Automatic annotation (TrEMBL):
Highest taxon of the lineage: Eukaryota
Any one of the GO CC terms: cytoplasm
GO MF annotations, alphabetized: GTP binding; GTPase activity; ribonucleoprotein complex binding; selenocysteine insertion sequence binding; translation elongation factor activity; tRNA binding
Required cofactor(s): Mn(2+); Mg(2+)
Region of interest called Disordered, as start-end residue ranges on this chain: 528-551
Name the record gives this protein: Selenocysteine-specific elongation factor
PANTHER family: ELONGATION FACTOR TU-RELATED, SELENOCYSTEINE-SPECIFIC ELONGATION FACTOR
Gene that encodes it: EEFSEC
Length: 575
């Protein structure tokens, strides 16, 4: 029996700004439409745009770089929607893309969404081809120079991205536009196919691990069962396996499978497959995830490691809300940023694990070159701003999400005006630890050792004796000073002291100085209080003036301690 020629599947994401002609390009490239292909949703046809991830494919001979022997290279085109409000769908599709085609309208160049697609590509994909579409709209005489000009412009745009130097191909997917007769042949498409073949590589596929598949289409076949088509994100699946549909909380047995209209018994990561299981209502699962039973968790909060997206304008603030895309769901979530303790800023980056033994420093915002705290350092003339090598965030979701244990997380501000010319993707990261318990605030967060540094300042009111002074202005009148007793303080003159207890009713307190006051400190303080008593003999107005002069050189008291954000007892800790 002759060896079955192997078919190698490469997923090509077709991304770009709305109306750049992505669907027309996919149609021109494609010969075999898969079930989800080409704007099948009625609302999509009505709007004339792609709403969901459309899929179709074409096959060519296996190019030499992918090994000898008979075989075919199958390109599965994932036509991603370009409408800004649909960016959620693109992010969902980005996790299965091996190669990206960024479609640019040659008459318009880079547009908002093309920039967002570029960002998603950099996060989720290794290789890219830029396609300049609609060259038929350029007058023939000037066409070549216009294409060259736009090619140079695109090369410049890509200079500082990981796609620097990627191929740029000019085509007209549908000369004459959507209304033109089908007899019009596309321009440049066969050249584009050659470029795609040259860019194809053997994606690293791994059949081990839990089965996880992104379903993008679901329908029932009478007498057979319900078919779910989609792309396998991880692991593998065989005939007879049980698969879980977490959204419906049911487990189903795999009755039969097809890959592009051919029955198969096994499929693995990266494959595009239709899986038929025992009957259920397909309307319940238009798209979503299916998996090895119990391999996904549903979480209410998560710890992620993250990086800010450089094109996002503005700071990433703690307590702000973002649209968080985790696995295949997008929900609103609130963030709290934290970094290593300052001494650990240069520690090696920990990939895919989170260490609960360590202390972490709370941050009001994600630290970056342009964040507030860096600005302040610049003003204080510290030219070199120290940034940590790794930063984390605690995400608290408004409603629980179901996702794999380690997965890509993207934070965006999707409520920004669609037509505003800004990138709405704010950060991307990896989910390190999910919290499945609804009461995670009580059960889980106290394990997270994120602390705030507290800094309080007061002044010495007067000397009591060589070993003690009275302080003021460190606490409010109503503060319970008892809880601060025993904490260490420092005087601006250099002495170390310990808070001994309250003094009177107005928030003043007594400080013990174990090593005694220096003679010069005593003189300074006695001089100050003499001035005061002198002024006291005059009338009240003078006293105000004198205390103004006096406060030019007061002795200040500094109290430093740290407090863990999730410590229910609010203990104050000094090293």
């Amino acid at each position: 029996m002759a060896a079955v020629p192997r078919v190698l599947n490469v997923n090509v994401g077709v991304l770009g700004h709305i109306d750049s002609g992505k669907t027309a390009l996919a149609r021109a490239l494609s010969t075999t439409g898969s079930t989800a292909a080409f704007d099948r949703a009625p609302q999509s046809r009505a709007r004339g745009i792609t709403l969901d991830l459309g899929f179709s494919c074409f096959r060519t001979a296996l190019p030499p770089q992918l090994g000898p022997g008979p075989g075919e290279l199958q390109f599965t085109l994932v036509d991603c929607p370009g409408h800004a409000s649909l960016i959620r769908t693109i992010i969902g599709g980005a996790q299965i893309i091996d190669l990206m085609m960024l479609v640019i309208d040659v008459t318009k160049g880079m547009q908002t969404q093309s920039a967002e697609c570029l960002v998603i590509g950099q996060i989720a994909c290794q290789k890219m081809v830029v396609v300049l579409n609609k060259i038929d709209l350029l007058p023939e005489g000037k066409r070549q120079s216009a294409i060259e000009k736009m090619t140079k412009k695109m090369q410049k745009t890509l200079e500082n991205t990981k796609f620097c130097g990627c191929p740029i191909v000019a085509v007209a997917a549908k000369p004459g536009g959507p209304e033109a007769p089908e007899s019009e042949n596309p321009l440049g498409v066969s050249e584009l196919i050659e470029v795609l073949k040259s860019q194809a590589y053997l994606p690293s596929r791994d059949p081990s691990g839990n089965f996880l598949m992104a379903v993008d289409h679901c329908f029932s076949i009478k007498g057979q069962g319900t078919v779910m088509t989609g792309t396998i994100l991880s692991g593998s699946v065989s005939l007879g396996d049980n698969v879980e549909i977490p959204a419906l909380k049911v487990t189903k047995k795999v009755k039969s499978m097809q890959m592009f209209h051919t029955p198969v018994t096994y499929a693995m990561q990266g494959d595009r497959v239709g899986i038929c299981v025992t009957q259920f209502d397909p309307k319940l699962l238009e798209r979503g995830l299916i998996c090895t039973p119990e391999s996904l968790h549903t979480i209410h909060a998560a710890i992620i490691s993250l990086k800010k997206i450089q094109y996002f304008r503005g700071a990433l603030q703690t307590k702000a809300k973002f649209h968080i895309t985790v696995g295949h769901e997008t929900v609103m979530g609130r963030v709290m940023f934290f970094s290593p303790a300052p001494a650990d800023f240069n520690e090696e980056i920990q990939e895919n694990v989170f260490d609960f033994e360590k202390d972490y420093l709370y941050q009001e915002e994600y630290l970056s070159k342009d964040s507030k705290s860096s600005e302040e350092n610049k003003e204080n003339d510290q030219s070199e701003v120290q940034l940590p090598r790794q930063q984390w965030a605690l995400l608290e979701f408004e409603k629980p999400v179901t996702c794999p244990k380690l997965c890509l997380v993207i934070g965006s501000k999707l409520d920004t005006d669609i037509h505003a010319n800004t990138c709405r993707l704010a950060f991307h990261g990896v989910l390190l630890q999910g919290m499945e318990d609804k009461n995670y605030v009580e059960t889980f967060l106290p394990k997270l050792k994120v602390y705030k540094l507290k800094h309080k300042e007061g002044q010495v009111e007067r000397v009591m004796d060589d070993y003690s002074v009275i302080g003021r202005s460190l606490f409010k009148k109503e503060t319970n000073i008892q809880i601060f007793v025993g904490l260490k303080i420092k005087l601006s003159t250099g002495e170390d002291g310990i808070i001994d207890g309250g003094f009177g009713q107005s928030g003043k307190f007594k400080i013990r100085i174990p090593d005694g006051l220096k003679p010069e400190t005593k003189m300074l303080l006695t001089a100050a209080s003499k001035k005061k008593s002198k002024a006291g003999k005059g009338d009240a107005n003078k006293e105000d003036e004198s205390s103004k002069n006096d406060s030019a050189q007061p002795v200040t008291i500094t109290l430093l301690f740290k407090r863990y954000v999730f410590d229910t007892q609010k203990k104050m800790i000094q090293s």
